[in-house]
Amino acid sequence: MKYYILNRGDQYSQELTQTFKTLARQRGLIWDQEEPDIVVTVGGDGTMLQAFHTFSDQLDRLAFVGIHTGHLGFYADWKPSELHQLVERMSDPDTRLEQHVVKYPIAEVQINRIDESLTYYALNELTLRGIHATLVVQLNVNDQRFETFRGDGICISTPSGSTAYNKSAGGAIIHPSLETIQIAEIASINNKVYRSLGSSMILPKHHHCDLYPKANQKILLSIDHLKFEYDDIISIRAMVGDKKVRFARFRPFPFWNRVKEAFIGDGE
Ligand code: NAD
């Protein structure tokens, strides 16, 4: 099995990376930067987001595994103390990677600027925020005008990203077996003059939404950890992606258990 390993860059993550490489070499795993079967991340969820965007052109074939060096992550869910176990699972000749792969939906984001069109995939979400002033944006759903939003921003998340920014914006947590995107408002202005839905909405696969920012508005667009500033966006389309992201689980860790561990803890 061929692997690539990417870390957060801090000393502890770098040390763990070296330990992983040594164990992997001893167990016959091959380091491959170009076409790995598995991409291992050491750090936090941010490191996984970085790995996802680095290998976004190979999502169909490779799988990701995350080791966390801080608190439990949603993507980085292996503990440093489980490093040996992970290398053993990866190098076991009886391991069939496909049997351990879970696939999560991602979002496809098409950005139409005055003189170029760009396509990105988001693992967590895209957000649109005003830089100097309130964001004003028309939201269309399936090519029909739905509302004009005014406020701090809009967050459109994937199911696995629903526990990230979306949760802070008051959106629901969605199980990643559901192929959806969720549109959540960030501090909308609602009064007798301005009106938007005021709650998050969930679109199924094969539906899409388009955002049309007011002309000449300076906006901050984020796609996961990536940030872009624009003042010439005509529209942004978001929908459930035609691809999925693949995670190599190797041992069960159900989504709701991760939600409970991250947000509720063991207390009673
Ligand atoms: P970062 O890498 O420091 O991450 C910020 C926090 O978000 C970390 O605690 C991380 O563990 C957590 N996180 C990331 N993905 C998650 C997920 N799917 N479920 C639960 N928690 C998750 O910050 P960054 O590099 O600037 O941005 C990465 C992500 O941070 C963004 O995709 C966004 O979801 C999140 N974020 C959240 C808020 C907020 O909640 N108000 C604000 C900014 C960014």
Description:
- By secondary structure, the protein is an alpha+beta fold.
- Helix content is 18%, strand content 43%.
- The chain contains five helices and 16 strands.
- It has helices at residues 11-26, 45-54, 83-91, 165-168, 255-263, and strands spanning 2-7, 30-31, 38-43, 63-68, 76-78, 101-113, 117-122, 125-130, 135-141, 144-157, 180-188, 201-204, 208-213, 219-223, 226-230, 233-248.
- The strands form two sheets. Strands 6, 7, 8, 9, 10, 11, 12, 13, 14, 15 and 16 form an eleven-stranded antiparallel sheet that branches.
- Strand 14 (219-223) and strand 15 form a beta hairpin.
- Helix 1 packs parallel to helix 3.
- The longest helix is centred in the N-terminal third of the chain and has 16 residues, at 11-26.
- It is elongated.
- The termini are far apart.
- The mean pLDDT is 96.
- Bound molecules: nicotinamide-adenine-dinucleotide.
- Nicotinamide-adenine-dinucleotide binds next to helix 2 and helix 4.
